[in-house]
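Throughout our pipeline, every protein is held as a single compact record rather than as scattered files. The record that follows is passed on verbatim for readers who wish to inspect the format.
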Amino acid sequence: MATFTTDTTEGAGEPVPLELAATARSRRRGLLGRDGIEGALLLRPANSVHTLGMRFAIDVAYLDRTSRVLAVRTMRPGRLGLPRPRARQVLEAEAGAMERWGVRRGARIAVQDG
């Protein structure tokens, strides 16, 4: 399994488990049908998400082509997110997780394949 870290000023921190959704089918499915996720899910390529049919609220981080965070939002179930024109990837996790991991605007995400 892959992991990711951030380059926040507090240091890299512990690696976070990461699932990769690189196929059209896996991106469409995303976190639908799950009761939660340990770690995060990276949708690549993607520039928007929705939470229609989701069972829990999620944090969404929009990343540019260099994996720098453009914005982080919390989305309740049943919402439709607007596309972010500069976003090329979307990182999803349970609500509240991004703050704990130091994922915020301007941070860079580093993915390590496992």
In short: The beta strands are 2-6, 16-21, 40-43, 58-63, 69-75, 89-94, 109-112. The first helix runs from residue 24 to 29. The helical segments are 24-29, 97-101. The two ends are 5 Å apart (CA to CA).
